[in-house]
Hints:
Blueprint: H1 3-6, H2 15-27, H3 31-37, H4 39-52, E1 58-62, H5 68-72, E2 77-82, H6 85-94, E3 99-102, H7 108-112, E4 118-124, H8 133-141, E5 144-153, H9 160-168
Parallel strand pairs: 1-2, 1-4, 2-3, 4-5
Amino acid sequence: MNADQSSLQLPPFSRRKREFLEHVEATVDDQERWRTINAVYYNTDYQFMRFLIPPGKRVLELGCGRGDLLAALKPSYGVGIDFSPTAILRAKAQHPNLQFHLGDAEDRETLAQIHGPFDYVVIADTIGMFENIDDTLRLVHQLWAPFPSIIISYCSHRWEPVLKLSEVLRLKSRQ
């Protein structure tokens, strides 16, 4: 952990969130390979997000990972939050024109470091990890512009059998 990361103490996590963080940290090197294998999916996802969010907007992404989606949106002001120290280091290195913060999107102190307002708040594949969605959205509300758009994307539980099979066949990373 570098000096930038050690200055921020992550709040205590639930067992579920702690285990997920451990998984993310252990597999962060594999993410590039999975993104290459599943390039069509990611390109289509980014294309749809760009359809929803025009370039030049002020965008906050909760659970930004390595920052690739945020960068693809070409914001005039882009800020990402993630609880993975390794992902944040990679995001800062790959996308120096954007701001990235190590922290928990559900934590008041983490959000207090963010300077809004934002035209768009993106929660992509992250909302299922929130302990309390309502409270989190209430906290994030202080960062919204007067007429914000909140983009939430998350995989339907109906896809779970296909996704599990893809994991067994090593066509996607383990969740």
